[in-house]
Automatic annotation (TrEMBL), chain A:
The keyword ATP-binding does not apply. This is Intermembrane phospholipid transport system permease protein MlaE. One of its GO terms (cellular component) is ATP-binding cassette (ABC) transporter complex. It is found in: Cell inner membrane. It is a multi-pass membrane protein. Keywords: Cell inner membrane, Cell membrane, Membrane, Transmembrane, Transmembrane helix, Transport. Belongs to the MlaE permease family. It comes from the Bacteria. It comes from Methylohalomonas lacus.
UniProtKB/TrEMBL annotation, chain B:
The keyword Hydrolase does not apply. The chain crosses the membrane at residues 6-25. Keywords: Membrane, Transmembrane, Transmembrane helix. Signal peptide: none annotated. This is Phospholipid/cholesterol/gamma-HCH transport system substrate-binding protein. InterPro entries: ABC_MlaD, Mce/MlaD, MlaD_Phospholipid_Transporter. It comes from Methylohalomonas lacus. One of its GO terms (molecular function) is phospholipid binding. It holds the Pfam family MlaD. Residues 40-118 form the Mce/MlaD domain. The keyword Transmembrane applies.
From TrEMBL, chain C:
It holds the Pfam family ABC_tran. This is Phospholipid/cholesterol/gamma-HCH transport system ATP-binding protein. The keyword Translocase does not apply. Residues 16-252 form the ABC transporter domain. The keyword Transcription does not apply. One of its GO terms (molecular function) is ATP hydrolysis activity. Keywords: ATP-binding, Nucleotide-binding, Transport.
Length: 266, 166, 280
């Protein structure tokens, strides 16, 4: 009996150890991968057209989901915020509430989560498929570096697109909040904008939001491109890598958001 | 597959939309375009207590925002708070004997500086100081005073707490 | 045919010379002290049962894998010691045809064939167009230039991949299992294409396959690999008449022999008894 318990405990510790070793091994590979990506960056910049093409699939194709979600998030913020603020007779502050929530938090975070689901998973699947069908290998054999030709442009495209998407999310969200607050609930237009303008700072709010979205864009695309490149080249491997991209990058976004918020607004 | 030229145009539009959103955020949503940033002239005022006044708080005259608080520091000799205000160049003719008070927007709102114009013929210019000031109302002090009065005089009509129109 | 300066002496040398090659993966020895020569201008077949490391051999020659020991000499360059940049230069002189074709899925046939030209040359678009049309004509797919690679059959994809592999006029082409899963017609087409490309372009070809008859019909020299070693080599006729048990098993498709039918396991009886012991 005692032995069975002991064996169970040791088994659990072994499991933990194996999990930890696997985790750090992957982390190490991910960082080596990042170094290769960054080393390829000058060559990627020299052929920027490749990145432009990727910005179409990574950035532009994510536009619809970002804009629609931004609009609805802004409208819900307007509705909820109004109901709360009206109790204090402070419904003129609705603009402040909507704008600050969007610019500081929801814009960067929600758009990064959506970006991970829409563009990140697509990136992983595409690169994983290229690996499984030996396309990356074939490129290497044609003396073409996949880091410069395939991975680098996709990474850069995601990195550039993310802040733009987050800005659009926030802007559309504020317009959505305006529609609900001013259009439907009758908040004064002037008060809505004026209070917003007096409370939202360019540097401390907008710039920090942009910095957040740049960091998130870096993290999400890095994870997505790495998971694709690190895929076990089978169909099951690709589907697992895609899931991992969404899970890991969502966790990374939320964790980084906490750290960045603590650093910025303290 | 789309033509590469089409893709480039679409991506161009995408980037423009993103930049437009950023521009909207910084111009329309935040206070970069309003008075207090950029062109303007600075005047000073000394207060015994500024309460919860913060930089970037609005400076109003007759309820109109004409500038913003630029900086807050303390005078090493008098231990008074020195508030530097940036007034928009649109409002040049503020009389010399204008007085400044710190008010609260609503019961719990932000604090701002209100200027009451005097009748002087000379106007405030860059670096001038407003002489007549009244301090921020600190809620705790009012409540404390009210409680003291209650205890000392047993005033019946003190219930409405003179504090609000103090 | 090769632009080597030390002309006649070098021309007699094999293009690829593999010496004492050892390679292990996940603790398993894939190659054990193997010597292989790939002569210039010929078709050399590499045969052997599945999983004996034929594809690995091609990747070693291409420098995608590094051997544990030994050297791979490609026209005077030791592939496994090259720096990345010279390795890429060496690769431009090799074409490789992957089993699946490995065409780039986001491009059509034309762009796939043009891909190495656009990556490695500064040629004007009109010249690239002509070159691509010539290569596609050589594999008989000039009319398919606007198809996407997903619209091609397996045999067509391999032919496009062949056109892409010869786009840069390499010295050598490596074929990885070109006949697998092909119907007799496209098999015949591929055999003829491999033979014709080799002879017309003066290429050196390396043909990795386990299809005995097809390989024997075009190869000038054949190596039979098994269990990490070269177990037989010679012209197709010599291989056919070989006395070696390994070669006989492979050529005659015998289920059991030096390559055992059973995966290595403890004795059958012991394992059955062990089962009854555990359950009791």
């Amino acid at each position: 009996m005692m032995n069975a318990v002991l064996a169970g405990v040791i088994g659990f510790i072994r499991y933990l150890g194996r999990f930890g070793l696997g985790f750090f091994e992957r982390l190490g590979r991910a960082h080596l991968f990042l170094i290769s990506l960054l080393l390829a960056l000058p060559a990627v910049l020299a052929r920027f057209r490749l990145t432009v093409v990727q910005m179409y699939s990574v950035g532009f194709l994510s536009l619809v989901i970002i804009v629609v979600s931004g609009l609805f998030v802004g409208m819900v913020l307007g509705l909820q915020g109004y109901n709360t603020l009206v109790d204090f007779g402070a419904e003129e502050s609705l603009g402040v509430l909507v704008a600050l929530s969007l610019v500081r938090e929801l814009g960067p975070v929600v758009s990064a989560l959506l970006f991970a689901g829409r563009a990140g998973s697509a990136l992983t699947a595409e690169i994983g498929l290229m690996k499984a069908t030996e396309q990356l290998s074939a490129m290497e054999m044609m003396a073409v570096d996949p880091f410069r030709r395939v991975l680098g442009p996709r990474f850069l495209a995601g990195f550039i697109s993310m802040p733009l998407l987050a800005a659009m999310f926030s802007a559309v969200g504020i317009i959505g909040g305006y529609f609900v607050g001013v259009g439907l609930l009758g908040v004064d237009t002037g008060a809505f904008w004026a209070q917003m303008q007096s409370a939202v700072g360019v540097r401390e709010d907008i710039m920090n939001g942009v910095i957040k979205s740049i960091v998130f864009g870096f993290a999400v695309t890095w994870i997505a491109v790495f998971e694709g490149y690190d895929t076990i080249p089978t169909s099951e491997g690709i589907s697992r890598a895609t899931t991992r991209t969404v899970v890991n990058s969502s966790l990374a976004v939320l964790g980084l958001d906490f750290i960045l918020t603590a650093l910025m607004f303290n | 597959m789309l033509q590469s030229k089409t893709i480039e145009i679409i991506v161009g539009i995408f980037v423009l939309l993103g930049l437009a959103a950023l521009l909207m955020l910084s111009m329309k949503v935040s206070n970069i375009g309003g008075p207090g940033e950029g062109s303007g002239y600075k005047i000073e005022a000394e207060f015994l207590n500024i309460g919860g006044l913060k930089t970037r708080a609005p400076v109003k005259m007759a309820g109109v925002t004409i500038g913003r608080v630029h900086g807050i520091s303390i005078d090493e000799d008098t231990y008074n708070a020195v508030v530097v205000m940036n007034i928009s160049n649109d409002y040049k003719n503020i009389p010399m004997d204008t007085s400044a008070s710190i008010y609260t927007a609503g019961l719990l709102g932000e604090q701002y500086i209100s200027l009451q114009p005097g009748g002087s013929e000379t106007y405030l210019a860059e670096g001038d100081q407003i002489q007549i000031t009244s301090d921020a109302v600190v809620l705790e002090e009012i409540i404390g005073q009210f409680m003291y009065n209650q205890a000392a005089g047993g005033n019946e009509d003190g219930g409405n707490g003179g504090g609000l129109d103090f | 045919m090769t632009e080597n300066n030390n002309a006649s002496a070098a021309a007699d040398q094999p293009l690829v010379r593999i010496r004492n090659l050892s390679f292990r993966r996940a603790g398993r020895l894939i190659f054990d002290d193997v010597d292989i020569d790939i002569p210039r201008g010929r078709i050399t077949g590499i045969m052997g049962p599945s999983g004996c490391g034929k594809t690995t051999l091609l990747r070693l020659i291409g420098g995608q894998l590094k051997p544990a020991a030994g050297s791979i000499d490609f026209d005077g360059m030791i592939i496994n010691q090259l720096r990345r940049k010279s390795l890429f230069e060496a690769r431009k002189r090799m074409g490789m045809l992957f089993q699946s074709g490995a065409l780039l899925t986001d491009m059509n046939v034309f762009d796939n064939v043009a891909f190495p030209l656009r990556e490695h040359t500064e040629l004007p678009e009109s010249m690239i167009h002509d070159l691509v049309i010539m290569k596609l004509e050589a594999v008989g797919l000039r009319g398919a230039r606007n198809l996407m690679s997903s619209e091609l059959s397996g045999g067509m994809a391999r032919r496009v991949a062949l056109a892409r592999a010869i786009a840069l006029d390499p010295d050598m082409i490596m074929y990885d299992e070109p006949f697998t899963g092909q119907d007799p017609i496209s098999m015949g087409v591929l055999i003829r294409l491999i033979k014709r490309t080799n002879d017309a372009l003066g290429l050196t070809s390396m043909l990795v396959s386990h299809d005995v008859a097809e390989t024997a019909s075009i190869a000038d020299y054949i190596y039979v690999l098994s269990d990490g070693k070269v177990v037989g080599q010679g012209s197709p006729d010599e291989i056919r008449d070989s006395e070696s048990e390994w070669v006989r098993q492979f050529m005659d498709a015998r289920p059991d022999g030096p390559v055992p039918f059973h995966y290595p396991a403890p004795a059958f009886e012991d394992e059955l008894l062990a089962g009854t012991r555990e359950s009791s």
